[in-house]
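Obj.: predict assembly geometry.
Materials: sequence records (below).
Method: joint structure prediction, all chains together.
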Amino acid sequence: MLRRFSAAPYMLWTILFILVPVFMVLFYSLFSPVPAGYALDLDGYHKFVDPLYLEVLWRSIVIAFKSTLLCLLVGYPLALILSRITPRFQKILVMLIILPMWMNFLLRTYAWIPILGRNGLINTLLGSFGVAPLNLLFNENAVLLGMVYNFLPFMVLPIYTVLMKIDRQLIEAAEDLGADRLVVFRRIILPLSIPGLISGVMMVFMPAVSTFVISDLLGGAQITLIGNLIKDQFQTVYDWNFGSAISMILMVIILLSMSILNRYDKRERGVSMW
Amino acid sequence: MKKSIVMVLILVSSLVALVGCGDPQQLKEDKKLYVYNWGDYIGEDIITDFEKKYGAEVVYDQYATNEDMYVKIKQGGTKYDIAIPSEYMIEKMIKEDMLEPIDLARISNFGKINDRFKNLASDPGNKYSVPYMWGTMGIVYNSSMIDGEIDSWAALWDEKYAKQILMIDSQRESLAVALKKSGYSMNSIDPAEVEAAKQALLEQKPLVLAYVGDNYKDMMIGGEAAMAVAWSGDAVFMSEENEDLIYVVPEEGSNVWFDSMIIPKGARNVELAHQFIDFMTRPDIGQRNVEYIGYSTPNTETLALLDPETSGDPAAYPSDEVLAKCEVFVDPGPAIELYNRVWTEVKSAK
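Observations (raw structure tokens):
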């Protein structure tokens, strides 16, 4: 009884702020307003099957994939180092990783503009060595940088948490049995850290594939991602039907990729994020 | 069991706290004015002065394009008492019955507005709108980064300045520039002409450094780009900050626009909104406003208060000859679909 009641606020929250909005998006993607109410309208989905928009979708997936991979390549070693150092340094380092997140996301992203600009920090520095100004801002690499910069903590923290939980005795046993460091990593540490790695990948991929702020600010609204396409439909074009249809398509893609990852996760461990 | 009763009580009381707003709150609402304005479009402290004079509290929000403003008000759920759109958007909003009539008898300063800016085609008789500012669209360029002078929209397609060109991230303005450059009216809704404009924009895309909002001012002042599509008032402000910046209305002609204050339907504080409009049209307030934001005033008494350097600036107060070549935007009506499609295509292209 008590358990049921204490769950009620969370249920209410979930229904009000997650389920209802999702159903609203679904509704708008299937129906559009006519003078007498709402009528079935699948135009949004039809419209999306156009090489132009499919390319935008593909571009978003590729760039999200790249940023996830980069976060993994940078984040995993960082998490590994973090799990190995003395607790005092650990605290400081974890703090340093989390610290930027105390600042507003927009501000953090905005700050890259004066750093990367033509007369920005980097170009001024390079200029003093006689290097002509580089176009660092408003291209795909700038967007990628913005994503890795913003989402890296989401990769590092889950991996770090999992690594910390690995039983040291397992590693010692492997070493006693003659495994060198590479084998220990490959056979013990890596397999045991897979759940953290998968959470990290999900937590980076999801915001990366749907962001529109980073591509607007650092891509100069030139690199249109699926998030920008959706935002434009709602904010400037006023085509809620199309915008909702794209949102649904994106949601399905994210769900699919997560279920694939999840299946892999279960095979490995039997425990999952869900 | 007792605990669960407590839980329920907490839940219910928090819901009540969320939903209910007692009388004191209601009283406060009476003196609250929700203002929705363009970004960077009001002088410093003017709102504070209004609040002091009328004992009101102003809640101030900003938008970047007419379309953003329209969508937000159209979708409902907002409670803006004042917005300041351009003429073609006002025309659209009147057509869609989105505006509250304005009682000109309560706008004591209305008579001080130059007749030229009254009775616009978008709102004959000023039933729904009172002029705020006006200006033109053009090109602002950095003379230290460009050889010679710019006098044509074609400059924005000059490969010599690849990746040094800034465009506005707004469909109406960008299409207007492309239409004019291709030799058509910026109000064209002819599919073939709009298609030509789309091709021009696609061709231009590799040369564009970025499609920007209000931050183009900082970028031009900081020398981040050589030229940008700009509004006259912004150009006045920018050239004060950076002397190399020059504003020109291209010889093909451009857009002349008039932003006016309106009261959206559903406004809660129509009375206070009228007081706000009257306050904003006061000559001394107008003067402070113009001196800060740089746009051109429609108010004859405000104009007289400005120092001659400002009122004589051709960027802000162009000659009749230049103005004769400029067009006022007309609401594209259903052709907005075509505009939307074209702009989405341009933005989505690689």
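Conclusions so far: Confidence is low (pLDDT under 50) at residues 270-274 of chain A.
To do: check interface contacts against the pulldown list.
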